[in-house]
Design goal:
Strands 1, 2, 3, 4, 5, 6, 7, 8, 9 and 10 form a 10-stranded mixed β-sheet that branches. Helix 6 links the parallel strand 5 and strand 6. With 326 residues, this protein is an alpha/beta fold. Helices cover 45% and strands 19% of the residues.
């Protein structure tokens, strides 16, 4: 037997031995703890939703789901980490809008938004509440616009970070109205909301879950909601679209289950089925509905279509407004 044929037979024998173990590992998944990466500090919307989802996943899959908050560089720290993680189903990611914004906005990320990840399922959709500090002398959208026009450049709009969806909402609102105000990025929505409540910043598009405590305490006031239609959870808050000339203004915070590219399909299928089951649980739906969050799953194809639509919209805004990392 010549040497090349011997090598071929040896490789075939090795493959025959390895493949059953690989298939078995996929069918037995998970066999150890899973890490669910959150790209923001604890206490924000993304973190709150992932912790509930992770807790239910742990119960359904029979293994611990550990939450790891990797904040930094407007979520790029987390995205880079996940892109380089083993594609074995043990590193999950609560990815959102910044995943597709940062490659254009920052330009120095270490991942490709289309090649580095596989999209398993959408998880949640949340409108933003445009809230102002309680002492800010406006109560309606027309009053806010008029006051900002009369005082150009004097006030701050807080955001939860560069590239975050509420940052994009602030940029879009500024671009469409021609208003002049300073956009101030924070390391997460919780800290930004606290500064609006204390008066360090005057206004913010806050995720509804994060805005509720400040609104209920009377430290902030709701001006409008960012979704195209009113939220069933906040029926008395008018939309930006209906209370201004911005008739097509429609911005929501979304997040989905993302895994490193190349994660085996059987594992992705199991994760998808688990997410679909969790997002259909009445207790989970009602828990977040009270806070203005819509919990629902999607197919990978639906997630991909949404991903591409969002990318086109926000990348267009970034380029048209020549936005740069601050």
């Amino acid at each position: 037997m010549n040497r090349s044929r011997f090598k071929a037979l040896a490789l075939a024998a090795l493959t025959a031995l390895v493949l059953p173990f690989s298939a078995s590992a996929q069918s037995d998944y998970p066999t150890k703890a899973i890490t669910f990466i959150v790209p923001y500090p604890p206490g924000g919307l993304n973190d709150a939703i992932v912790r509930v989802i992770g807790d239910r996943m742990s119960a359904l899959l029979g293994k611990p789901v550990l939450i790891d908050n990797k904040a930094g560089a407007a979520t790029t720290v987390a995205s880079n980490f996940v892109a380089k993680a083993p594609a074995d189903g043990y590193t999950l990611y609560g990815g959102g809008t910044s995943l597709i914004i940062n490659p254009t906005l920052q330009g120095n990320v270490q991942y490709d938004p289309h090649k580095s990840f596989d999209l398993v399922s959408l998880i949640s959709f949340t409108p933003f509440i445009l809230q102002v500090n309680a002492d800010f002398p406006v109560k309606t959208m027309p009053e806010l616009i008029a006051y900002l026009k009369a005082n150009p450049g004097k006030f701050n709009m807080a955001t939860s970070g560069i590239g975050a969806t509420n940052h994009m909402a602030a940029e879009m609102f500024r671009a469409k109205t021609g208003l002049k105000y300073t956009i101030v990025p924070y390391r997460g929505g919780a800290q930004a909301g606290q500064d609006v409540a204390s008066g360090q910043a005057q206004m913010m598009f806050s995720a509804s879950l994060e805005a509720i405590p400040f609104l209920q305490s009377g430290k902030t006031r709701a001006i409008a909601i960012s979704s195209l239609k009113r939220s069933p959870s906040f029926p008395d808050i008018p939309t930006v679209a209906e209370s201004s000339d911005l008739k097509d203004f429609d911005v929501v915070f979304w997040q989905g289950l993302v895994v490193p590219a190349g994660t085996p399909k059987p594992i992705q299928d199991k994760l998808h089925a688990t997410i679909a089951k969790i997002t259909a649980e009445p207790e989970v739906i009602e828990r977040f509905k009270k806070q203005g969050v819509e919990i629902r799953s999607s197919t990978p194809a639906e997630f991909k279509a949404w991903y591409l639509t969002e990318e086109k919209r926000w990348v267009t805004l970034i380029k048209e407004q020549n936005l740069k990392p601050e």
